[in-house]
Amino acid sequence: MKPYEDEVVTVAVQAQGLRNAIERLELAASSPDNPVETYLPLFEALNWVVALDDRIGAIWRPDGKKLGEDWRGKVKHRDVIVGLDWVRNVVHHQWADALRLDPVGHGLYPSEELFPSEDLYPKHDHAWVWRPVDDLPKRKPRKRRKMAGHYDDADPGKTAYCEQLVGRPASDTLRDGLESCAWVARLLEP
Q: How many Å apart are CA 104 and CA 152, to the nearest integer?
């Protein structure tokens, strides 16, 4: 039984929104000459991750009590979700371009000698990867609220971003986050 019987927008529907945004990101990212077209679905995918993070934390109650952010500790890609949540805030609030084009090293095969047939080579060898944290804008602290800035070394989101995302293709990490959210959706909506 669904925990929200009368709602059309379920966790599974939101996970499908994330999946669709990732697919659009991968399509746009297939061309290294398309940074704006890559940014748009990235922005959407990051917002889906945060929406799913908030929604799952609010409704998943495996032990009868609300988990909040602790739900992340029950899934495989906990730190990826924490890092994606952090970088979403940088992209959303600081209008940051969180990806850079890495022109080499992301093909399917390590060398041309292994597969001499040209049709076996990847069509592209580049990837849009997460930027190093020092390449992202610093967060200006709000005067009214005491909150750590994005460069606070104690921020678990920053730590997760540095350890789990930096240098990795964005679509890979987003797919990791999707895997965890879709797993929870199957539990909530069998």
A: 32
Distances (CA, A) of 120 to 109, 113, 115, 172: 9, 12, 7, 21
Distance CA 104, CA 81 (A): 26
Q: Is the dihedral of CA 142, 145, 146, 151 positive or negative?
A: negative
First to last CA, the chain: 8
- What per-residue confidence (pLDDT) applies to 5? 63
Q: Which of 42, 43, 46, 58 is nearest to 9 (CA)?
A: 58
In the prediction, which pLDDT does 122 show?
46
Backbone phi and psi for residue 166, each to the nearest 5 degrees, phi listed first? -50, 125
3-state helix, strand, coil in the chain (%, to 5): 55, 5, 40
Per-residue CA distances from 26 to 16, 36, 44, 174 (Å): 15, 13, 13, 11
pLDDT at 18: 97
| Mean pLDDT in residue range 31-55 | 90
**Average pLDDT for 40-50:** 94
Give the pLDDT band (50/70/90) at residue 72.
very high
